[in-house]
Write a structure and sequence with these properties.
Layout lengths: L2 E9 L3 H12 L4 E4 L11 E3 L7 E3 L10 H7 L5 E2 L3 E7 L2 E6 L4 H11 L3 H20 L10 H5 L4 H9 L2 H8 L3 H8 L16 H10 L9 E2 L3 H14 L3 E3 L4 E7 L2 E6 L2 E10 L3 H8 L12 E7 L11 H4 L3 E4 L3 H12 L9 E4 L11 H5 L3 E7 L10 H16 L10 E7 L1 H8 L25 H5 L8 E3 L13 H11 L2
Parallel strand pairs: 1-2, 1-12, 2-9, 6-14, 12-18
Antiparallel strand pairs: 3-4, 5-8, 6-7, 10-11, 11-12, 13-16, 13-17, 14-15, 15-16
Helix pairs in contact: 1-10, 1-18, 8-13
Length: 503
């Protein structure tokens, strides 16, 4: 590729880039995507992780919650997203706390067995009923220009708004719940991809909690049939059908931004465009623009992908197909989470693993080859919390973190898991950075922002109204670094495209 002219050039070919490109191309704009890897999709891909084993795992991201149903319909995506009967299972000595997706008597009995009464479950129901009112207020605004904070606040009880938005989430959790394990189950949604104490005054944990629970007004996390690669494949299909030009193996080396357009350069190519959408992190974009870079983000998750010959039996006696069907918590009582954060904030690996497991194949076995699908084999993905970039500097540290995971899960099993493991890989934030170009391995490209305009904030152009602006009028954010970015949602891509179409 040599010189090229196009209406819109997109740097980075993640799922948001594909969404933005399709909306723009369907509106008649010429669009070129430049992706440095040999494939599009970014973190939303499936891959054959284990040599000689026919299994395609969602290697980095694995569930879908925030992607709005209207976006799926508008783009014509042929996706199947399945619900899980189990929302979560948290083992403890002698038992386990089971939360059903549609809560029934099994959930009530599980709370009763843990706490000795129905009080904690009543508190649980009341809390999530109130969270639902916030989700129902915010979810319909995600594909529109940013709402004003006051308009949203007026739709929610003030006490609920205070708990979720104005004060550290840990305050509300400790006031509303008495059991350490229940507190931790609530708290985990505030920490996925975010390194913070539950009492952090910056409230980044509150923002993370909100994003995890507002998807489509329900917050349900569903399984993409075919794995996350099926989501990317559909996005690529509709993009190409709309006429989007996708260039892989094209690493961008520099961007010149002007008031009337942009020029993107790389090894052997130059692209001139009226607009540039950035699917890369703001940290990377600043480097490409030759500007002073912001502080480098630091991811906080330790990913482990496993293929096991069968699910292990648990000491509690629960059917593993129920326990592992949802989110399986390890070391995630509130006190354990806070202790892990305190240790990691000193630059040390926490003393014990804190994280959660997800089994894709209990819901969808299509990611397995014929022989594995016909066997008892299952995939397990572990997402470890409070393991920031700085505490996993090398392979030795990663090995220690993996051994901590084995210790944590074996504590609750009736048999050790090691003999069941057919394949394993782990990904530290540093390894994710190297593989995907995500600075610091931060899956959100940086701290999440509130999905609204604050008091006194007045947008002056479409990019600011849609939450995708940069300091350059012809350069917009379309990835996870956008105002409502983060997770596999397509929201950042949708909003960037609409900001251009309104300009």
């Amino acid at each position: 590729m040599s010189d090229e002219r196009t209406d819109v050039v997109i740097v980075g070919g993640g799922h948001n880039a594909l969404v933005a490109a399709t909306y723009l191309a369907q509106a008649g704009r010429s669009v070129t995507i430049l992706e440095r890897l040999a494939h599009v999709g970014g973190a939303a891909i499936s891959a054959p992780v284990f040599d000689g084993l026919d299994a395609r795992l969602s290697r980095y991201s694995y569930l879908v919650s925030l992607m709005p149903s209207p976006l799926i319909d508008q783009l014509g995506l042929r996706l199947e997203l399945r619900s899980r009967d189990t929302a979560s299972y948290t083992p403890y000595d002698g038992g386990g706390l089971l939360i059903e997706t549609v809560e029934g008597e099994a959930t009530r009995e599980s709370f009763r067995a843990l706490t000795g009464s129905d009080d904690e479950y009543a508190h649980w129901q009341a809390f999530y009923d109130e969270v639902a009112t916030v989700a129902e207020a915010i979810a319909p605004t995600l594909l529109s220009p940013l709402p004003h904070v006051g308009d949203l606040r007026d739709k929610v009880e003030m006490a609920v708004w205070t708990d979720l938005v104005d004060e550290p989430l840990g305050v509300a959790i400790e006031r509303r719940f008495t059991h350490d394990l229940v507190r931790g189950v609530v708290a985990t949604d505030a920490l996925i991809g975010t390194f913070a104490s539950l009492h952090d005054r910056t409230l980044i944990q509150n923002r993370c909690f909100l994003y995890h629970l507002i998807g489509n007004g329900t917050g349900e996390w569903r399984v993409p049939v075919g794995g996350m690669g099926a989501v990317t494949a559909e996005l690529e299909r509709v993009a190409r059908e709309a006429g989007v030009v996708i260039r892989t193996n094209c690493e961008v080396e520099g961007v010149e931004a002007r008031d009337d357009g942009v020029t993107v350069t790389g090894d052997g190519f130059v692209v001139d465009a009226h607009w540039l959408l950035s699917g890369v992190a703001p940290y990377v974009l600043a480097q490409l623009l030759g500007e002073s870079v912001p502080a480098k983000p630091s991811g906080s998750q330790f990913k482990i992908n496993l293929l096991v010959s069968r699910l292990p039996q648990l000491k509690s006696g629960i059917d593993p197909a129920i326990a592992f069907a949802g989110t399986f918590h390890l070391g995630e009582s509130m006190s354990e989470l806070e202790a892990a954060w305190a240790t990691a904030s000193r630059g040390e690996l926490p003393d014990a693993a804190a994280g959660e497991l997800y089994c894709h194949t209990l819901t969808d076995r299509s990611i397995l080859g014929r022989e594995l699908a016909a066997s008892d084999a299952q995939t397990l993905t572990y997402f470890g919390l409070h393991t920031p970039y700085e505490v996993l500097p090398d392979e030795a540290a990663a090995t220690r973190a993996y051994e901590q995971f084995l210790t944590a899960i074996n504590e609750h099993l009736a048999e050790p898991i090691e003999p069941l493991i057919l394949g394993v890989e782990h990904k530290t934030p540093a390894q994710i950075e190297q593989a995907l170009g995500m600075p610091g391995g931060h899956i959100f490209h940086g701290d999440l922002a509130w999905p609204w305009l604050e008091e006194g904030e007045k947008p002056h152009n479409p990019a600011e109204r849609w939450g995708v602006a940069t300091s350059h009028p012809r350069v917009l954010l379309c990835g996870s670094g956008a105002r409502r970015g983060g997770a596999v949602s397509g929201i950042g891509g949708h909003n960037a495209a609409h900001a251009i179409l309104e300009s």
